[in-house]
User: Fold this.
Amino acid sequence: MKITDLAPEDPRLESDLLPVLSELRPHLTPELFREVYGTGHAQGLRFSAAYADDGRCVGAAGWRIVVNTSSLRSLYVDDLVTAAADRSTGVGHALLAHLETRARAAGCHELNLDSGTHRTGAHRFYLRERFDIVAFHFARPLIAPDQTP
Assistant:
């Protein structure tokens, strides 16, 4: 398996990574994904893709380095998904190892992520990967996503 970081102009974002990412984020169209990455890249958003030996993209991670008062410097994982057909084959573990290496190189104190309460399979995976449940994440909708100003 090979893990590659993809820059905003990389055509593999749409051809390879987006189909896998869409399994987690089905609302993303190619246009919306370009817009989000275009804006998010300036805020530190990056994407890594995991490729199987046969060249297929089998996993995707969206992440950023965050500095705040609670964890000081951390690598925050926005998105982590393995293609459904390739789950339980080590892809998620390899992506997390890649992100941990990036975090340590950047001087981060923690590796953080949120996971939807309905994703119990993902929760089992994160617990096996030695993540602790340390907080509740609260959200208050302000406007519908299709009503952006």
